[in-house]
Write a structure and sequence with these properties.
Number of strands: 4
Bound molecules: adenosine-3',5'-cyclic-monophosphate
Structural class: alpha+beta
Order of helices and strands: EHHEHHEHHEH
CATH class: Alpha Beta
């Protein structure tokens, strides 16, 4: 079943100049970009995006990091896209991520972990809507 998920190439990965490598891996996995946007989040926008983590001890440093430089936000579509994207990313902590996954290859630590991906259908709907109006999503 085709579904959509939200991906963010985080400020650490943009700084490392691996945007192209990451998008190449999405395409190789048949996770088709249906919307792409490069932007710099404000601290407030990062706080809104990660609102579910508001009570976590890392909330302030996470949102400071996410607003520290440009990011690339993508909506990806494909069969079972949410789960397959999470498998491609690997565990949140790059040290625990399977070899060859995006976070194992490009992440530095649990905070500077290169990429974000939606963790459920409900989250994907919220996260895609946070960045893209429906008319910005192409059909693929
Ligand atoms: P992400 O998939 O973007 O979702 C929430 C983010 O919070 C996560 O990736 C990490 O970057 C960050 N995060 C999760 N756990 C921790 C932690 N224990 N310490 C610092 N950052 C964390």
């Amino acid at each position: 079943m085709s579904e959509r998920t939200l991906a963010i190439i985080k400020p650490d990965a943009v700084k490392k100049q691996v945007i192209g490598d990451i998008i190449k891996r999405y395409e190789a996995a048949n996770l088709h970009p249906v919307a792409i946007r490069m932007m710099q989040l404000t601290k407030t926008a990062a706080e809104g995006f990660y609102a579910v983590h508001k009570q976590r001890p890392f909330f302030n440093s996470l949102t400071a990091f996410m607003s520290s430089g440009p990011v690339v936000v993508l909506a990806l579509a494909g069969d079972n896209a949410i789960k397959r994207h999470r498998e491609l990313m690997g565990a949140t902590d790059p040290a625990k991520a399977e070899p060859g996954t995006l976070r194992a290859v490009h992440g530095t630590n649990i905070e500077f972990n290169a990429v974000h991906g939606s963790d459920s259908a409900d989250t994907a709907r919220f996260e895609i809507g946070y960045f893209f109006p429906e008319m910005d999503l192409v059909a693929r």
